[in-house]
Amino acid sequence: MAKSARSGGSVRPKAAAKPSILPTALDTADLFGSKKLAARDRAILATISTRLRVRAGTTIFERGDPATAIYSIASGAVCSFRPLTRETRRVMAFLFADDIFGLARAGRYVNTVRALTPLTVLRIPAEALKPMLLRNPELQLHFLCKVTQALRESQRHAILIGSEDPAARVSRFLTMMEQAQPQPDPDVVHLPMTRRDIGDYLNLPPAGVGGALAELAKRGAVLLDNPHRIRVLDRRQLATSADEA
Fold first, then answer.
1. How far is CA 108 from the centre of its chain?
2. Could you tell me which residues are beta bridge partners of residue 72?
3. Which CATH number fits domain 161-242: 3.40.930.10, 1.20.58.90, 3.30.1490.20, 1.10.10.10?
4. Which pTM was predicted?
């Protein structure tokens, strides 16, 4: 497993290759969007933020690392997971543009976060953010909403893996992924993660994920364009499959 840097704004990729994170001038529009924060607040937050570019497969930080910063995704996708043993893990969440990550307990990150795709992420130092939040109620509310959203998604995850039918779990997962990402084509669900990633999230083996997708295709609910692109053919059938226990 790749080791992340313990301080500063740099990270180390999984392989021995040179890190691909390049701090650049911050584009304030990248952070939360003009409809979510006032221009003045975005500009203030930008003064303490650094934009980083990350290669796919790079570990941003690991569970147990000192929690020195909060991260906001400008573009790309990440996987947040908790290692269980040397060979197994539990994927806790998949995060996309405008999501925030960096949940900590007692000053340490509680999950490992790894880039699924090429990623642009905004690093906000925790020590600089704290006094800013105390002075700005609008920023406080924004971050509180993000934390609430993360808790809600955690509850949905617990309900999702409670289903005994793999096809039901995968159907619900596809609906979640469709809602979580901007979709240029409303009938296509993009999956930047691998079958193993999905299985570690749904508590299924990779073959079980593949079998469930094949079953949904057999029912006429979806068409498997390729491993990372699922076309929805029949939303009613997909919803029916998701409701099965």
1. 19
2. 100, 122
3. 1.10.10.10
4. 0.78
